């Protein structure tokens, strides 16, 4: 029985359980991984009073009554990385640079643009505020606090933060063992000549690439011709050796689509089969023991759409990610659209500063539009007419540019 998109998403939430297993890995290899425990800051950031600008550190508060002309004598300089802590007295200052330690006796840093210097003397044009241009100890992060929580999916900025805290390894949820099973007699690997009726196989590369984006690099890719016995044997091995199996093609109802029969013969429990959507209607989701199986439609755009909506969600749940599924926002649509299919639509689109524009060439076999897209516009099956300027649900694709 065909189910709706919302029912299919609910089924993924209901049936996928997060992994308990964790591992410690180097921070440099942790992009896309999900933290298995809170990160506790071993040091404060900054760990010393730090200058936020190039300029001059002064003890202005004490100098106020005795320094009517706002003139100071330079007694030295402090560069970034210097450990020295010169003592400032009334009427003295030090040259200081961004990131350098501010002397304990200084109460402000005056930016160099507001200072006139002559030899070893400076004149300040504008009276500074106490604490001006000084980053306080722990102003960003206090030692002992938890800047990154369990369930945080590590991004490049997260890795930079961890490194700045001196952390070199993190505890993350273990990745699932993944097998991509590619079916189809018509498929040829790149670099080989094409015979009439053949096409170059690309779905495995697409799936492997989006898995890499999610921090999963150990992926087995297996090819099988359109033969029930061979399909069943390879599928049985994939289920036995993997925790997630992604099947590309062979799930429809053609005479040479053997995946559905093979899954049935292997007693794989069907959670759902066929979703009221376009593209990607013949989508299968099932489970056997601790292995999850997604049989994705063979058309490339359908494969990628189903991955982003359902498989990525399953990965986020498996890893215990705090935020699950791609980010959905609401934007005005740039042109009117009519849904004549009686199904929910996932339309390749491009987000810009004015809103979202549905792209041409929405065919499920066409990838050129996906290459230009940075979003999918979701049109429910109950919606037939969308007027220009209507606010529509927009699913942001990972690493997409909005320029």
From TrEMBL:
Entry's EC annotation: 2.10.1.1
Catalytic activity: adenylyl-molybdopterin + molybdate = Mo-molybdopterin + AMP + H(+)
Keywords recorded for this protein, A-Z: Magnesium, Metal-binding, Molybdenum, Molybdenum cofactor biosynthesis, Transferase
UniProt keyword annotation of Plastid present: no
Residues annotated as domain MoaB/Mog: 179-317
Origin: domain of life: Bacteria
Entry cofactors: Mg(2+)
Pathway: Cofactor biosynthesis; molybdopterin biosynthesis
Cited NCBIfam families: Glp_gephyrin, molyb_syn
Stated role: Catalyzes the insertion of molybdate into adenylated molybdopterin with the concomitant release of AMP.
Family the UniProt entry places it in: Belongs to the MoeA family.
Entry protein name: Molybdopterin molybdenumtransferase
UniProt organism field: Dokdonia ponticola
